[in-house]
Amino acid sequence: MLEKIFHLKEHGTNVKTEIVAGLSTFMTMAYIIALNPNLLTGFGAHGKDLWNAVFLATVLSAFAGTVLMAFLANKPFALASGMGLNSYFATIVATIAAAMGVSYVEAFPAGLAIILISGIFFTILTLLKVREKIVAAIPGSVRLGIPAGIGLMLVNIGLGSNAGIFTDKGAFYMLGSFFTNGPSATKAAMGDAYPTMILYVLTLFVGILLISVLAHKNVTGSILVGIVGASVFYWAGSFILGNNPFAALEGASFIPPFKDMLNLTLFKFDFKGLFSIGIFSAVMTIISFCMVDMFDTIGTLIGTAKKANMLTETGEMENMNKAMLSDSIATCIGACTGTSTVTTFIESAAGVEEGGRTGLTSLTTAIMFLLCMFIAPIAALIPPPATSAALVYVGVLMIGSLKEVDYSDVAQSVPVVLMLVFMMVTSGIGNGIGIGLIAYTAIKLCTGRVKEISWITVLLSVLFLGKFFLVF
């Protein structure tokens, strides 16, 4: 049955490989289960009930979106509430709450209305194959930089925020204070938290070492085994430090909070409230969500598909439109259940690296998300630095796409380098693609190579200029 549905042999894979790949993808993105409700509710500041509702919405929308990707597009990509977009969503809800003079919880439905509208707009564009044409309009030179940019983002996430190691210096400087100031100064600044921070750092590098060595020896499931091995190291370290890493299981509830979601977020839309910030601001906010999600998704699909050798010689991916349709419908589902934009995750690259090539990988990941309705306390036991190790390793592999860039052609090299920088400093794939398109178009125009530019590429460049620099 699985062969008939997913065509495993045709894609050079098997059931075992796909399941291991799906588990690897889940392990690397499971952090979103707790992090998304934390961000959307101010780490619980707006009430436990809203946290519960968003938690369940996060799990259900991830399950639904990833199942769509599995059966509709037959691709090994997983979906969940997108990072960056969730923080932006929380900011918009807070702005609406201030404008309406109501609480954050009361303004939440207005924010969900914005997500629903952007999701519907996405779906229409996809059905009309407009998004497909946009993908085709992205120049080859820009496409070459997408996988590497995503790779650097994964390394940044892995070495930084996802590992639980923070400083006030921003992206790519998460470990800065420790290695710059030295252990003595860092210990003095952190006090009692210093031993835990050291354990986090050691767990991260143990995980990277395990995965790298296992992958070098061609061990099946090297990423998954590395994550588990790093987790065991962390748990042992916690016990040595006098902490119980399993303490969260005491008194933990394994009953899904359906009541809270039903009362606060399920199909709760306030279309009138979203315009309390002004019609122009509301429209621009919706467009911003659309553009960010569209290009983040396009970038993730192209970058991850390239790593899996799923792209044709012209840089196209089979069932690209169906994959994007899955993404846009998932955003609508997320809005209906009660979370911010649902999008394709760059962490899907972990499963692809393990050999995942079909929708069976996605289906495995989806089932794990669904089970998290009941086993969330257990899933939360996997420490952030253990999963971060996988992100760093996969990121390093994806950076390899830079070897294909023709550095003698400024129309290739300059857009690629700018893309890499802007993806890192803004933590946004779409932002990097936008800067790359603008640079590519400008260089082609100024070097007399106008005929080499698609009018859609020019239009996209103008739209991104408006997004970046138009004040509203």
Q: What descriptive keywords fit this protein?
A:
two-stranded antiparallel sheet, 69% helix, 472 residues, 1% strand, globular
Question: What does this entry look like structurally?
Answer:
- The chain is mostly helical.
- The protein contains 20 helices and two strands.
- The protein has helices at 2-6, 15-29, 32-40, 48-73, 85-100, 104-127, 130-137, 140-159, 176-190, 194-216, 222-240, 258-264, 279-307, 320-337, 348-353, 359-379, 384-398, 410-426, 429-446, 455-469; strands at residues 79-81, 342-344.
- A two-stranded antiparallel ribbon has the order 1-2.
- Helix 6 packs antiparallel against helix 14 (320-337) and helix 8 packs antiparallel against helix 19.
- The longest helix has 29 residues, at 279-307.
- It is globular, with a radius of gyration of 22 Å.
- Residues 166-174 have low confidence and may be disordered.
Q: What's the quick description here?
A:
The chain has 472 residues and is an all-alpha fold.
Overall body shape: globular
Mean pLDDT: 85
Radius of gyration: 22 Å
How much of the polypeptide forms β-strand, as a percent range?
under 5%
Spatially, the strands of the biggest sheet line up as 1-2
The assigned structural class equals mainly alpha
Number of strands: 2
Largest sheet data? 2 strands, antiparallel
Low-confidence stretches: 166-174
Share of helix among residues? 55-70%
Number of separate helices? 20
* Pattern of helices and strands: HHHHEHHHHHHHHHHEHHHHHH
Tell me the span between the first and last alpha carbons.
Answer: 54 Å
